[in-house]
């Protein structure tokens, strides 16, 4: 594990997302593991903000996969996936093979452990844990 940090507000968790986003070159898959309310979507919002994605950042819960295409300001084609209710097969049928190997893309996945069998070896794995109402533990593996 390379880093482990405690955040004391949702803004601090967003900030962690922003910091990670600064490192992205294209082609990365960011896996956010954690229970409901742990802060996966909050962390994602920080990434999207840093990558100049125009809000609002709709939670993909009802969409499975939300795409934010490249714009003049936004240089990556971003996919935000919520695998809570799906099986690997559902993600495959959305064009996963092509999407996951394209270096113009950034993929952010909530509940990645549910589709572990189709994830490549090289991913950013981040675990969020609820400590109390305002505190979360964020582990970067
Ligand atoms: N330190 C913190 N980090 C992240 N979220 C926090 C924190 N403290 C409070 N919260 C709140 O917890 C909730 C986290 O929700 P969300 O990011 O949607 O979680 P998830 O996507 O993991 O279900 C939000 O309402 C957020 O405002
Ligand atoms: Mg969420």
Structural write-up:
There is one protein chain. This protein has helices spanning 10-22, 40-50, 88-92, 96-99, and strands at residues 3-7, 29-33, 65-68, 77-82, 105-110, 124-130, 136-140. By secondary structure, the protein is α/β, with parallel strands linked by helices. A hairpin with an 8-residue loop joins strand 3 (65-68) and strand 4. Strands 1-7-6-2-5-4-3 form a 7-stranded mixed beta sheet, with helices on one face.
Features:
141 residues, alpha/beta, 7-stranded mixed beta sheet, 27% strand, binds adenosine-5'-diphosphate
Topology summary:
Layout (H helix, E strand, L loop, with lengths): L2 E5 L2 H13 L6 E5 L6 H11 L14 E4 L8 E6 L5 H5 L3 H4 L5 E6 L13 E7 L5 E5 L1
Parallel strand pairs: 2-5, 2-6, 4-5
Antiparallel strand pairs: 1-7, 3-4, 6-7
Helix pairs in contact: 1-2
Bound molecules: adenosine-5'-diphosphate and magnesium ion.
